[in-house]
Amino acid sequence: MNCRILYILFFVSVFLTSCVPTKDLIYLQDKGNSTTANVVESTNKPYRLQTNDVLSITIKALDERLVEMFSTTSKTQLSPTIESLFFNGYTVDDHGNIRIPVLGEVNVLGFTAEEVRIKVEQRLLDEYFKATAQLFVSVKLAGFRYTVNGEVGTPGTKVLYQEKVSVLEAIANSGDITVTGDRKDVVVIRQFPQGAETFKIDLTDKNAMKSAVYYLQPNDYIYVKPLKQKTWGTGKTGIESLGTIITILSLATTTFLLLKN
User: Fold this and answer.
1) Cβ–Cβ under 8 Å, residues 46 and 116
2) What is the pLDDT of residues 7-34, one digit of tens each?
3) What is the CB neighbour count within 10 angstroms for residue 250?
4) How many CB atoms lie within 10 A of CB 21?
5) What residues pair up with 152 in beta bridges, in sequence order?
6) CA-CA distances (angstroms) from residue 215 to 9, 156, 159, 209?
7) Dist. CA 106–CA 119, nearest whole Å
8) Residue 130 burial (10 A CB sphere; 0-12, 13-18, 19+)
9) pLDDT for 117-153, tens place per residue?
């Protein structure tokens, strides 16, 4: 009798520990340690350009013929693709420079896109145009690129055409975290001029919105670790775990009967 009770307790404990609790699947929970849902302003700093970034630069003027020589793209190209931006965009080289027709090399390493816009516009006004030309310069990153790997629906490198991307948006765009993914310990690896730095963020906590990596920067790498339940292989849900336990019991019973006979 005692052995039966021990077996029952053992399988019940396996059943309970193998299931993924609901609280581990819900994002941005209020765990009693958050005071406000607002994102701290300093955590969303403007991105500063690094080597291998690709810029899309548009130069316009009252007379479009005056600025044609500064453009690398065709006038008929209305919606540039990722491929066209790679070939026609301005890539930051190993020295931190981009090469603009006529203007030549412009150093952009460590500058924000807005600072590059001001820099290019000022050079054009100083060297080639007067204020009456009504110059309009636009500088943007050629897509927001990031990589998601681990326990997500569709891992890989993604490109979004928007200014800001949160870690939740990036993960949602990758098919969301699977049931066996650890939402409490998501790793974000960020590149800096001095090297890579690793951050961790708990996406089940409301305070995640105050994290320095809640809003991504281009070229961030996101890794979602697997939960222990995946390693155990007992099942992600109660039904799957119950099926595993029944299979083990059937195998144990069959083995016992065969040995007894």
Assistant:
1) no
2) 554 555 554 455 667 777 889 898 776 5
3) 10
4) 9
5) 177
6) 46, 19, 15, 8
7) 9
8) exposed
9) 999 999 999 999 988 889 999 999 988 999 999 999 9
- φ, ψ dihedrals at 133, nearest 5°: -70, -15
Phi first, then psi, for residue 257 (nearest 5°) are -65, -40
Residue 10 has which token pair? 């053992």
What is the pTM for the complete model shown?
Answer: 0.74
Nearest-5° angle of CA 168, CA 174, CA 180?
A: 80
pLDDT for 261: 64
Report the sign of the C-alpha dihedral through residues 166, 169, 174, 176, in that order.
positive
Report whether 217 contacts 199 (CB < 8 A): no
3-state SS, the chain, equals CHHHHHHHHHHHHHHHHHCCCHHHCCCCECCCCCCCCCCCHHHCCCCCCCCCCEEEEEEECCCHHHCHHHCCCCCCCCCCCHHHHHHHCEECCCCCEEEECCCEEEECCCCCHHHHHHHHHHHHHHHCCCHHHCCEEEEEECCEEEEEEECECCCEEEEECCCCCEHHHHHHCCCCECCCECCCCEEEEEEECCEEEEEEECCCEHHHHHCCCCECCCCCEEEECECHHHHHCCCCCHHHHHHHHHHHHHHHHHHHHHHHC
CA distance 19 to 3: 25
Task: Look at the alpha carbons of 129, 132, 133, 134 in this order and tell me if their dihedral is positive or negative.
Answer: positive
Please write the tens of the pLDDT for every residue from 201-216: 999 999 999 999 999 9
